[in-house]
């Protein structure tokens, strides 16, 4: 995606409009003045190994016949990238899926071997249930998938009291048959939703490289990010210095950001990158 407005002034002296390209790293929203973007691309196929080591330095690409260093922006800031965070979420879902397979296996073992069943019977008290009740995401498609977990998850946990009562009343065969059907229905539905959730998380990752410029012509450096947001408009008066927010003392932010851009309701607050000092700060990492 080329940024056609790169060579045009984006500050209107009367309206003081500031147009920025925004992207997420974890739960933090960042911004780059669109005047400082030459292009946004997904092409990392021709990444060359870097001649030196620096935090976040991934390699070098040839852009407009210029060698341009590519940095992983999250690593530059020494924070977890969106890809790392979402990979952790995928692993968590793998573990919680296996928990419920093990839960059903443990219930069957208890029924057949007459041993105590010590797994959580309350769906809100298992590890997944505690996490699920608090989980939120800005990914609306993922949240829609997560809503489907509620019914089969509760139905699985309800099996323990129901089937153990049947066994205690001499109806073991009926209890085992209900469990067999629950494996084919409730548990399979839950496994399907775990799979859908993981797929949505993985598909939501879109690695892009932002080619940065200070003069609108020559590439300065390229930044790799994993989750773009949107182009947004602010006014110059929306820019607040870090010192006004008590963030100027944060070492990782020193010199990298001009300040926070925020609307009156703070619904779209973001840190604005200072590209004029970017190379100086990159070399210092």
UniProtKB/TrEMBL annotation:
GO biological process per UniProt: chemotaxis; signal transduction
Chemoreceptor zinc-binding domain residues: 100-163
Protein name: CheW-like domain-containing protein
Domain CheW-like intervals: 20-96
Pfam families reported for this sequence: CheW (PF01584), CZB (PF13682)
